[in-house]
Amino acid sequence: MSPGGVPLSWYLVLSAILFGLGVAGFLFKRNIITMFMSLELMLNAVNLSFVAFSYKWGQIGGHLFVFFVIVVAAAEAAVGLAIIISVFRNRGTLNPDDLEAMKL
Amino acid sequence: MDLFLFLTFALIAVGCAVNLVVQRHPISSALSLIGVMVSLAVLYLLLGAEFIAAIQVIVYAGAIMVLFLFVIMLLNAGVEERTRKSKLVRGLGLPLFAILLCQLAYLAYRHFGSADRVQFGKFIGSTAQIGRALFRDYVLPFEVTSVLILVAILGAVVLARKEIS
After folding, report:
1. Do B101 and A20 touch (CB under 8 A)?
2. Of A91, A102, B16, B40, which has the highest C-beta tally within 10 A?
3. Cα-flanking dihedrals φ and ψ of residue A7, to 5°?
């Protein structure tokens, strides 16, 4: 153990804080685009955990997982934003409270 | 120095994330999300992940967020309307959120304590190492990813095109 540096748990706590804020944003925001951005924030928080654990065990697997998460996030952003455009064109609103056509 | 850098960029990240949740215009939220991503890239560098830090800036803060800003601009999204929140949510939301964070922090401390320390300088994820692992042990996931991206491109084109009647 070396005296310098930052405890690993601080990185994990930061990741938890960012994830919690992402969940809060997803639940409270009333705009699909912002909800989507909160989702990206959650993915980023998990990526930070992956990299921190990868540092702890000196394994490269965590970095590869982060790489795949970023790739999937890019694909998800493309499809999700296309869905948002399509929904806006059909309904003319971005408020998820107004998008209840499939509600029973 | 490590501590200073960590605290600075962690505070920037948390501040930007809070700003993302609090702001009511999507453009402000998107800009603060870019702030979160760039400060996370610096934290990745501190953790010795240079490749991840680079693609975080290029792909996330560059490509994905530009896509978001482009869609916000395209849809001309305005300020979101305020919803009536119930008194229960307003009263209990923040304390319960704080309790959840305290529990998570307690778990992280209990499992890792402060013995595990992160020091700048130990680079474990060099681009060469990641490339070697990607094309040797993870070839199949890598190839499947290309199919996923192809499907995503096709899906985006089909969903966003204009119906020609």
Report:
1. yes
2. B40
3. -60, 140
User: Which residues numbered 9-48 in A keep a CB inside 8 Å of some CB on B?
Assistant: 9-14, 16-18, 20-22, 24-25, 28-31, 33-34, 36-38, 40-41, 44, 47-48
pTM: 0.89
| Lookup: tokens for B8 | 């600075």
Length of chain B, in residues: 165
* pLDDT tens digits for range B36-64: 999 999 999 988 888 999 999 999 888 99
Do B58 and B110 lie in one domain? The reply is yes
Host domain of residue B51: 2-125
Name all domains of chain A by residue range, CATH numbers in brackets. Answer: 32-92 (1.10.287.3510)
- Label residue B165 by pLDDT band (50, 70, 90): low
Same domain, B54 and B24: yes
